[in-house]
Design brief:
The protein contains five helices and four strands; from the N terminus they run H-E-E-H-H-E-E-H-H. Helix 1 packs across helix 3. It is mainly alpha-helical.
Length: 167
């Protein structure tokens, strides 16, 4: 019996479609939080499995109990070996290499590889310059066009600095 098979039979969070309710139980037995997951997280670390499901394996006698105990042992052995897993807030999680849109690997805290970063920065700069040029009217920038608004509204401003409509 694998840990996942054990969870399928005895875990209260496990749903028939393979999803997980993600309920966490406090020491007094009440549900403290619930964060549903699209599928069971086993064989990675699951606190509910460790605290609520695994201890029940020792209470069952016979061949079923032995199979359950072997599943729990294999679960904890996989966690302690930590092969291919990186530590996260809920325990180990699979280590995935991040890649850029071009396929090049990305280091931590980066959005683009060095080549794509230069290309993206250049394009962003061009877009900003294009927008700045489009904001000019008759050779004047938006800041200079305040004179046009003053002429339309007669130069009358209220106490908050907004133009007042004439009339």
């Amino acid at each position: 019996m694998t840990p996942l098979q054990f969870a399928q039979q005895f875990c209260a969070n496990y749903q028939s479609g393979g999803s997980c309710l993600g309920a966490r139980i406090a020491d007094d037995g009440r549900i403290t939080s619930c964060s549903p997951k699209p599928k069971c997280v086993l064989p990675t670390r699951c606190r509910y499995f460790e605290e609520c499901v695994a201890p029940n394996a020792e209470r069952v006698d016979g061949p079923t109990g032995l199979a359950m105990q072997a599943a729990v042992r294999s679960y904890f052995t996989a966690l302690t070996s930590n092969e291919g897993f990186k530590s996260g807030p809920d325990g180990p999680r699979p280590e995935v290499e991040r890649t850029c849109a071009c396929g090049a690997p990305i280091t931590a805290r980066r959005r683009f590889c060095n080549r794509c970063r230069v290309v993206n920065r250049r394009e962003t700069y061009r877009e900003a310059q294009r927008a700045r040029r489009m904001s000019t009217v008759n050779g004047k920038t938006a800041f200079d066009n305040q004179g046009v608004t003053r002429a339309v509204f007669g130069g009358q401003y209220d106490h908050s600095g907004h133009p007042q409509n004439p009339g």
